[in-house]
Design brief:
This protein is 79% helix and 0% strand. It has helices at residues 17-46, 49-76, 79-102, 108-132, 142-170, 174-191, 207-210, 212-219, 221-236, 243-250, 254-278, 285-305, 309-337, 343-372, 374-395, 397-400.
């Protein structure tokens, strides 16, 4: 089949892609569902904000600690089997949580142990699965494949927390039991993926080989530029972390308004990913990425100054849509510019950057809001994002020259 002139929906018909996408969606739904239940349960048991902070820390620390180990493992072994092992461990963990909840054995310490185990498996699973995609579809279909996968993941991010909350409301055992079933479905799909892959020669484990992903990214200005641009944009433009403050104190919208505001970026991201799956970026990709990040900054400013719930929702829709352009371009460039024997290590570093920017972005926005108020924090973040775009066009001129995402 001529992959360049393939039908637009052909990525779903490509051997292995549907199993890949199903595995990621089931896994994401399961994690979101269980995470909501674990957070609610530990707060219900402790009534402590500190305990909730520990939940976030137990999710984040394994990714930081394991990043370089993850990358090396993903480049030495069959990535499908790594995904299978991770998802089976997650399924067993969810099943144990269901049984412990049913028997009333579950303690706050037990929940934190479960969160840590899931955080560690996710640290392995996400970069490994990302590195798997170029082995499934040809480079000419990669952008469409990334956009389609992104749309599915955004749908999971919208549905997962709501599903977890509804199931927990029905019975505390339900979200964990359903998560165990969906993690099992994810594992069946990942091992069913059809692809062509030849294991690379296993080089000795040294400090140089473990940190090769960092060295590789530093030596490629286009890749370093796109990853760092996204890092600083999310770090500075994290006003969405302040949504409860905006909903209550500025928009006076109440809990329903907070739910609407939280959903808006994901809905915008989903809409844009569907557009990019049907009409992939075909020219001046680098300039369009810079423009999208600048729009992200402008939309953040509009959200920060808005006192109207409708305008705020529109601004957040634009935030999500513009961020998705950056995500698709970054993900596609990282995959296209990285040789297969390095993809595990490079994707692990990329995942660490993304996780760090999200976590530190929320911290930065919260600290600024504490000192200056949420509106000033949002404006500073949006302006900072636009300044970063202007600086990056000078620091990484080769990124602006990228014309296409074709391999």
């Amino acid at each position: 089949m001529d992959t360049v002139h393939a039908p637009r929906d052909s990525v779903l018909k490509h051997p292995g892609y549907l199993n890949f996408a199903a595995s990621r969606v089931f896994s994401s739904l399961s994690f979101q569902c269980a995470a909501i239940a674990m957070g609610w349960m530990i707060y219900d048991k402790t009534h402590s904000a500190f305990a909730l902070a520990l939940v976030g820390l137990c999710q984040f620390l394994p990714m930081v600690v394991l990043t370089f180990v993850v990358g090396h493992v993903a480049d030495r072994f069959d990535r499908r089997r790594i995904g299978l092992i991770c998802q089976l461990i997650e399924a067993v963990t969810a099943a144990v949580l269901a049984i412990a909840t049913w028997q009333d054995w579950l303690t706050p310490a037990g929940i934190l142990v479960a969160v840590t185990i899931m955080g560690a498996t996710v640290a392995f699973e996400r970069p490994t699965m990302a590195a798997l995609l170029p082995n499934i579809v040809p480079s000419s279909m990669l952008q469409r494949a990334v956009a389609t996968s992104t749309s599915m993941m955004q749908t999971a991010l919208i549905i997962g927390p709501s599903l977890g909350g509804l199931l927990y409301g029905a019975h505390p055992v339900a979200p964990f039991a359903v998560s165990a079933v969906m993690f099992t479905a994810a594992s069946i799909n990942v091992i069913s993926i059809r692809m062509s892959w030849t294991p690379s020669k296993r080089e000795p484990v040294t400090l140089t080989s473990v940190f090769a992903g960092v060295s590789f990214i530093k030596s490629r200005p286009v890749m370093l530029g796109t990853i760092s641009l996204d890092l600083f944009a999310v770090l500075l433009g994290g006003a969405t972390a302040l949504l409860p403050m905006f909903a209550r104190d500025i928009l006076h919208a109440g809990p329903w308004g907070l739910g609407l505001l939280r959903a808006a970026p994901a809905i915008g991201a989903l809409a844009m990913s569907i557009v990019l799956a049907r009409r992939p970026l075909s020219s001046n990709v680098g300039k369009k990425m810079f423009a999208a990040v600048a729009v992200f900054g402008l939309a953040t400013i509009v959200f920060a100054v808005s006192t109207n719930i409708a305008l705020s929702v529109v601004a957040l829709l634009v935030v999500g849509a513009s961020d998705t352009v950056s995500v698709v371009v970054r993900s596609s460039l990282v995959q296209l510019l990285t040789p297969d024997e390095m993809r595990g290590r490079v994707n692990a570093v990329n995942s660490l950057f993304i996780g760090t920017s999200n976590q530190l972005g929320e911290f930065e926005s919260g600290m600024l809001a504490g000192f200056m108020g949420p509106v000033a924090a949002g404006i500073i973040g949006g302006v900072g994002t636009i300044v970063v775009v202007l600086l990056w066009t000078r620091l990484f001129p080769d990124l602006a020259k990228v014309k296409t995402l074709q391999g």
